[in-house]
């Protein structure tokens, strides 16, 4: 129970009830401290990490499952809790009445959508282990590697590194990841997280255990939605049957379910209502493309690509009638300081990565190849709001 969030939800600054208390809590890319209904997965992860409670490193492992099943949510919450305890001199309490003072590893979470280079990898690990801030400029990769080796040499046990979103197009490649860990001291173990099945990834060859995460069952997904709504919305803003409808539509995918809740909330807020309606939910279903690209992928793009997408989601139908028209509209914006050629290149790159889709227009009797337009493969309302808030 989040007491602080519940108090905040009841506060009124203008005397009027407000539908939205916190949009960030509703975001599909936000992970809360206590993920709903993932107890069995948490127990499996704790079983794997059990050696740390005896002062030992666990073996490498691979956690896998489709998008939106809670892999990142559970691991980030678990590692956050483990790191709130003192490391290296933690007291471990066993089932007996005797307490034993043992050393314990540190826990580091990395997102390969962000750490896409060798420098970024070493920087992120080192920055998580030391109290002082590690500079991002004026320091070389080899210096970072040497400092990381020195830091790990001073640890009696070492570190467990969770590496998220492996195997995605713009993330660190699997072979590069294996090489990076092979170059670190032996007191480092890793928990890789991805969507591929073990037979489809070389990472499984270097792990002692593969842990599968299945999609949410419908009632579990309802609990996820109601938990987020209890924090981010006013009381009784969403009826249970609407949450159930969203969960059924999302088919086990928490990302899409939360995106639908976010969009429905936006529609209700724009209409000045204090609760969500079925029409709001149906509007959300219509906006979300199937399949939907994770907003985490979109928000991990470089700033200039995100700026192009921010303009794209505001263009009218005529401005999106062709790639040429879209390029001209975005390139002519005062908020995008890019040449038309660069804008077009970015659009093609993001189409190749699946973030946007080139849809061929219907032939209208003319000769030659019909033009194609660009459509986002993510929900524009959620991206627009999160981009503007960020």
Automatic annotation (TrEMBL):
Q: Which residues form the Orc1-like AAA ATPase domain?
A: 38-187
Q: Which SUPFAM superfamilies does the entry mention?
A: P-loop containing nucleoside triphosphate hydrolases, Winged helix' DNA-binding domain
Gene3D superfamilies to which the protein is assigned, alphabetical: 1.10.8.60, P-loop containing nucleotide triphosphate hydrolases (3.40.50.300)
Q: Please give one Pfam family short name.
A: AAA_16
Superkingdom is Archaea
Q: InterPro entries attached here?
A: AAA_16, P-loop_NTPase, WH_DNA-bd_sf
In Swiss-Prot or TrEMBL terms, this protein is called AAA family ATPase
């Amino acid at each position: 129970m989040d007491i602080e969030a519940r108090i905040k939800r009841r506060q009124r600054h203008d005397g009027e009830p407000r539908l939205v208390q916190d949009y960030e809590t509703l975001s599909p890319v936000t992970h809360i401290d206590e993920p709903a209904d993932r107890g069995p997965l948490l127990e499996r992860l704790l079983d794997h990490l059990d050696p740390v409670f005896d002062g030992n490193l666990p073996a490498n492992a691979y956690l896998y499952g489709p998008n939106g099943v809670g892999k990142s949510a559970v691991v980030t919450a678990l590692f956050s809790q483990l790191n709130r305890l003192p490391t290296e001199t933690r007291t471990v309490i066993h089932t007996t009445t005797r307490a034993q003072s043992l050393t314990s590893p540190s826990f580091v979470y990395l997102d390969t959508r962000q750490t896409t280079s060798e420098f970024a990898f070493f920087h992120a690990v080192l920055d998580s282990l030391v109290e002082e801030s590690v500079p991002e400029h004026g320091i070389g990769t080899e210096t970072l590697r040497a400092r990381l080796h020195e830091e790990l040499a001073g640890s009696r046990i070492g570190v467990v590194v969770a590496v998220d979103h492996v195997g995605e197009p713009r993330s660190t490649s699997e072979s590069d990841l294996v090489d990076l860990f092979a170059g670190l001291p032996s007191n480092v173990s890793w928990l890789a997280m991805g969507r591929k099945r073990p037979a489809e990834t070389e990472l499984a060859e270097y792990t002692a255990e593969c842990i599968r995460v299945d999609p949410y069952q419908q009632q579990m997904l309802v609990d996820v939605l109601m938990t987020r709504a209890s924090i981010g919305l006013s009381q009784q803003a969403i009826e249970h049957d609407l949450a159930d409808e969203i969960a059924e539509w999302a088919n086990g995918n928490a990302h899409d379910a939360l995106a639908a809740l976010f969009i429905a909330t936006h529609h209700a807020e724009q209409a000045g209502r204090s609760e969500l309606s079925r029409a709001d939910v149906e509007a959300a279903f219509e906006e979300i493309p199937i399949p939907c690209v994770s907003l985490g992928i979109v928000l991990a793009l470089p700033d200039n690509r995100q700026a192009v997408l921010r303009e794209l989601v505001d263009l009218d139908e005529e401005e999106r009638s062709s790639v040429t028209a879209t390029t001209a509209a975005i390139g002519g914006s005062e908020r995008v300081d890019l040449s038309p050629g660069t804008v077009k290149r970015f659009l093609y790159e993001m189409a190749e990565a699946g973030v946007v889709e080139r849809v061929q227009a219907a032939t209208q009797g003319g000769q030659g190849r019909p033009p194609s337009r660009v459509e986002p493969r993510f929900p524009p309302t959620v991206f627009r709001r999160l981009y503007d808030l960020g």
